[in-house]
Amino acid sequence: MSAHEILRLYDYWRSSACYRVRIALNLKGLPYESRPIHLLKDGGEQHSAAYREVNPQEAVPTLVDGARAIRQSLAIIEYLDEAYDGEMKLLPANARGRARARGLAMLVACDIHPLNNLRVMQFLEREWGTPQAQRERWTRHWMEEGFRAFEALLADHPSTGAYCEGDAPTLADICLIPQVYSANRSGVDMAPFPIIRRINEQCLALPAFDAARPERQPDAP
Questions:
Q1: Given this model, what pLDDT does residue 52 score?
Q2: SS3 breakdown of the chain: % helix, strand, coil, rounded to 5?
């Protein structure tokens, strides 16, 4: 399928999940219109009645393609890969490679990221009065735990190449790079993870990843 109209992405510049989708859109060479949803302004624009009609989960990203709305970053990325030929495929051609790329992506998207996202931090502060220093320690702990596993999976597999799975970026890299950005913001010591650091540098040298950086987005302060 080729794009019949401009894709719309409900986006927030510093959201890791949105960052993933921006990378995917850029790798596919698909033009899109950014619709910023500020997650902090006025208590969070994602909680507005207007946006709740777009995404009842009150979360970003949401991709709108014509009359179709797709939610959840991994589902959006796989939709883009299946629905549009684009400039490249985001998942490997063989079943084993696809399974490994998905597994690495889910390690980030299902095990690391959910424990550290904004609503969890807000809940810890609002409901239990958890001090900022303790919230930051929580964040670093779960990122470090996840990265230890991710690094081991990269080190102990013959198909780790220039990227997580082979010599072209895949869904795994799309998820990893935003998580490294979050880790750097949170003060995680990345020294114990040399393969992750190498792949992060390799990816950020690519125009598709570079253009997706949070600080390059139109709603970045």
A1: 95
A2: 55, 10, 35
Q: Residue 172 and residue 108: Cα distance in Å, rounded?
A: 9
**Angle at CA of residue 208, ends 93 and 206, nearest 5°:** 90
Question: What distance separates the 2 farthest-apart alpha carbons in the chain?
Answer: 50
Residues 82 and 24: beta-carbon distance below 8 Å? no
Residue 146: DSSP 8-state:
H
| Contact predicate 199/164, CB 8 Å | yes
pLDDT band at 200 (very low <50, low <70, confident <90, very high): very high
Structure tokens at 197: 């650091």
pLDDT at position 3 over 60: no
Nearest-angstrom CA–CA distance, 21 and 74? 8
What CATH number has the domain spanning 95-209?
1.20.1050.10
pTM (whole model) above 0.85: yes
Backbone dihedral angles phi then psi of residue 85, each to the nearest 5 degrees: -65, -50
* 103 in Cβ contact with 95 (< 8 Å): no
Distance of alpha carbon 99 from alpha carbon 89, whole angstroms: 15
Q: Please state, as a whole number, how many other Cβ atoms lie within 10 Å of the Cβ of residue 219.
A: 14
% residues pLDDT > 70 (the chain) = 98
Domain boundaries of the chain, sorted by first residue: 7-89, 95-209
Instruction: Name the CATH superfamily, with its identifier, for domain 7-89.
Output: Glutaredoxin (3.40.30.10)
